[in-house]
Amino acid sequence: MGFWPIFKREMKAFLVSPSTYLVLTIFLLLSGYFFYTDLIKFNWFNVLGKENLMTGLWQYYFNDLRFIMIFVLPLFTMRLFAEEKKLGTMELIKTYPVRDTEIIAGKYLACIAVFGVMLALTLTYVVLIGVIWNFLEIAPVMAGYLGIFLLGCALIACGLFVSSVTDNQVVAAIGTMGFFIFFWFLTWNEMIGSAELIAILKRVSLFDAVFDFFKGVINTRNIIFFLLVAFFFLFLTHRALGSRAVKGVK
Amino acid sequence: MIEAEGICKQYGSIEAVKDVSFKVEKGEVVGLLGPNGAGKTTTMRILACFIPPTRGLATVGGLDVTRYSLQVRRKIGYSMERTSLYPEMRVTSFLRFAGELKGLGQSKLKQAVPEVIELCGLEKVGNRIINNLSKGYRQRLGLAQALIGQPEVLILDEPTVGLDPENVSEIRQLIKGLTGERTVILSSHILSEVSMICSKVIIMNSGRIVAVDTPAHLGMVLQDRLATDVQIEGPQETDIEELGKISGICRVNILERLSDNLFKYRLEFEKDTDIYPALNAMTFEKNWVLREIQPVKMTLEDIFLKVVSKKQEPNG
Question: CATH fold of B2-220, please?
Answer without folding.
Answer: Rossmann fold (3.40.50)
